[in-house]
Design a protein that fits this description.
The protein has a single domain, classed as 3-Layer(aba) Sandwich (Rossmann fold). The strands form 2 sheets. Strands 3-2-1-4-5-10-9 form a 7-stranded mixed beta sheet, with helices on both faces. A 3-stranded antiparallel beta sheet has the order 6-7-8. The protein is α/β, with parallel strands linked by helices and 259 residues long. It contains 10 helices and 10 strands. The chain binds S-adenosylmethionine (SAM).
């Protein structure tokens, strides 16, 4: 496994830390229907439990985890992200978090210790061998009965969004060719590889997921059960052409709960 690869990616992530909230869709925002909250609320006796936020980024989830869980770990391979997470929490709350600056396939020292692992938009390594290795590491880090909760960016939602936008352009009288060209530019298709589910932007390369791939990769890593649900985003400024789309079912990312 070429470790140099994750080193390159961690530099890109660190560089993106200052503009993070502007660049990525926010699953924590108002109006977002996020199944993660109910899944966290359903963990029994969280005060006695250990939870790890894997790829914690700037730490938007950490205070929610500190509110209920007994032991909170926050892991990210980008030091710039961890710096922002500490600053967001402030010194008192940050002192209650165990920060780990490393890639998330390196979990050997945590084997069998985690009751819950969470990964929000961080299972995005462009090399799928590293994703598979990471999923196996997460499974080994979970205690028997442990739960893995994650959100992964959806590539199929992009195709849905493009379809809606192209149809609106056709309704306005555009030719099919012009409508598709406009929709492609609105969803920034040039940054995506739809066959392999990949997004490339300014040196950052991210895996985007199909729902069948969630089931396939989690089973391959040895998880016995996977439940999938949509994180639903409101049609707002974060999504191109949203003013025309309010009447349609919302766009999504994929949430899953694996055991
Ligand atoms: C899109 S951000 C999401 C951050 C955070 N979970 C959130 O919900 O805002 C992805 C984060 O995962 C981290 N990351 C990506 N691949 C990683 C890996 N292999 N090991 C550790 N961290 C990783 C990045 O540095 C970045 O902070």
């Amino acid at each position: 496994m070429p470790d140099r690869k994750w080193n390159e990616q961690d530099r890109h992530w660190s560089r993106h830390a200052p503009v993070y909230e502007d660049v990525f869709l926010d699953p924590y925002g108002p109006g977002v229907e996020n199944p993660l909250w109910a899944a966290l609320d359903a963990i029994p006796d969280p005060g006695s439990k250990t939870i790890a936020d894997l790829g914690c980024g700037t730490g938007p989830l950490l205070s929610r985890l500190l509110d209920s869980f007994g032991r909170v770990l926050a892991l990210d391979f980008a030091e710039g992200m961890l710096d922002r997470a500490r600053a967001r929490l402030g010194p008192k709350a940050a002192a209650r978090v165990e920060f780990l600056n490393r890639p998330m396939h390196e979990l050997d020292d945590l084997a069998g210790q985690l009751d819950v692992a969470v990964a929000v938009n961080s299972l995005v390594m462009p090399d799928v061998r590293l994703i598979d290795r990471t999923l196996r590491a997460i499974r080994s880090a979970l205690r028997p009965g442990g739960v893995f909760l994650a959100i992964v960016p959806s590539i199929d939602a992009l195709a849905y969004h493009a379809m809606l936008l192209a149809d609106r352009a056709l309704e306005r009288g555009m030719s099919p060719r012009a409508a598709e060209r406009l929709a492609a530019s609105q969803i920034e298709r040039r940054y995506y590889d739809f066959a392999f589910g990949r997004f490339r932007f300014q040196g950052l390369s991210q895996k985007f997921w199909q729902p069948f791939e969630v089931e396939y990769r989690l089973a391959r890593a040895g998880f016995a059960s996977v439940e999938i649900a949509k994180v639903l985003y409101p049609w707002d400024d974060a999504l191109a052409g949203s003013e025309e789309l309010a009447e349609f079912p919302q766009s999504w990312d994929w949430f899953f709960r694996a055991t």
